[in-house]
Specification:
With 139 residues, this protein is mostly helical. The chain is built from four helices and no strands. The protein is 76% helix and 0% strand. The chain is globular.
Length: 139
């Protein structure tokens, strides 16, 4: 348990620092893949190595859950940082600022997927309605 706690502090801090550094990077999709998949994947592989060194039994299921939670946490942190919260260093935000802004940012984060799907469906509907051939009786 102690090994996991020490490792989680290190990994969380590293992913947070990289997320803040890359919060304005483009293209967005590539940055998202790096932050949400590659970094948590690398950290999970390192976690596997740490657990192997200390001979932790039955670790495979826990590592899979750990990866998914790390990916979700990294996505949320990156999203919040892109929206001006949870920042450190020269861009540091106050706890008060974060407490005020995080409820809205959290709601937007939760709705980002459904909003994206809705926009794709609207675009598809709009495209299909303009590409229909006119009825021969309308000529």
């Amino acid at each position: 348990m102690l090994v996991e706690a020490v490792y989680a502090i290190f990994a969380g801090g590293l992913i947070g620092a990289v997320s803040q550094h890359l919060r304005r990077a483009r293209p967005l999709w590539a940055t998202g893949l790096l932050i949400c998949i590659a970094l948590p994947g690398t950290m999970t592989l390192a976690q596997l190595g740490v657990h192997h060194l200390v001979k932790t039994p039955h670790q495979s299921g826990g590592l899979l859950v750990s990866f998914f939670l790390a990916a979700l946490a990294a996505a949320y942190t990156w999203y919040a940082m892109r929206h001006g919260a949870m920042l450190g260093g020269i861009d540091e935000t106050t706890v008060r600022h974060d407490l005020r802004s995080l409820p809205r940012i959290s709601l937007d984060f939760l709705l980002a997927g459904p909003r994206w799907i809705a926009s794709k469906l609207k675009y598809k509907d709009k495209r299909s309605s303009t590409s229909e051939t006119p009825d021969p009786g309308e000529r």
